[in-house]
Backbone:
């Protein structure tokens, strides 16, 4: 004869243990196989914050130095040599492949010919003004890498150079 079950009715259950195990395996897999993007950094050697001694100052030939003044409106004013007696310039140019890059490439080729020594290369002095943007400094440092400039430095802009930028309308 058939039996009637008068007891409590059991609720259907799903065992999720295997699902939790699979989720942890997938999380572990993706954590281990995902490459974390590394920030790109630029190497900049900064001098010590000590008082400068006269013996640390180097005399550099005027025909080897080009000074880049970073002004407003994404413009650069450059001159070759000293400001009071420039060999070339001052001239206003833009950033990039149609602006400062061909000038730097030309000067890098000219300096060893002028000095007669292939070991002596162009020295680039970068002087950002108060009106230039941080992006301008990064852009000009990128240009130094692109043209393979061996010697470049970042310096403070002088009041005479600020006046020069003001005359050209690049200090606004």
Residues:
């Amino acid at each position: 004869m058939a039996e009637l079950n008068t007891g409590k009715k059991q609720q259907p259950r799903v065992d999720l243990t295997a699902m939790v195990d699979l989720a942890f395996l997938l999380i572990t897999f993706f954590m281990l196989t995902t490459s974390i993007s590394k920030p790109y950094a630029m190497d900049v050697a900064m001098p010590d914050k000590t008082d400068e001694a006269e013996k640390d100052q180097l005399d550099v030939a005027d025909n080897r130095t080009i000074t880049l003044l970073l002004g407003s409106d994404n413009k650069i004013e450059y001159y070759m040599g000293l400001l009071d007696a420039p060999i070339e310039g001052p001239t206003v140019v833009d950033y990039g492949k149609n602006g400062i890059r061909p000038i730097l490439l030309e000067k890098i080729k000219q300096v060893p010919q002028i000095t007669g020594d292939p070991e002596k290369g162009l020295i680039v002095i970068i002087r950002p003004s108060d009106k230039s943007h941080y992006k301008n400094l990064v852009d000009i440092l990128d240009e130094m890498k692109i043209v393979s400039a061996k010697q470049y430095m970042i310096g403070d802009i002088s009041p005479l150079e600020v006046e020069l930028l003001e005359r050209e309308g690049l200090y606004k």
User: Anything to note?
Assistant: The mean pLDDT is 83.
